[in-house]
Description:
The chain is rod-shaped. The chain is mainly alpha-helical. It contains 1 helix and no strands.
Amino acid sequence: MSAAGRSADRRRRAQLERRVLGIMLAALVFALGVALGEALHDNPKPGGNRMLVRTLQPSTLPPVRETVTVTEP
Length: 73
């Protein structure tokens, strides 16, 4: 093989290596983005509101005593 042929092979191989490296880098950035998004999504927001709904059952009241006040003149 001539020197020009070897040089062309090296250039093709270098291009292929750059493409593979670029794809791997893009996949790594994507994975880090997904991981960060999940981490932010899992944490509760500070100071969030809580709502508690309770239903009160009516109870019976005891009978009211009558009080009579007598005053003398």
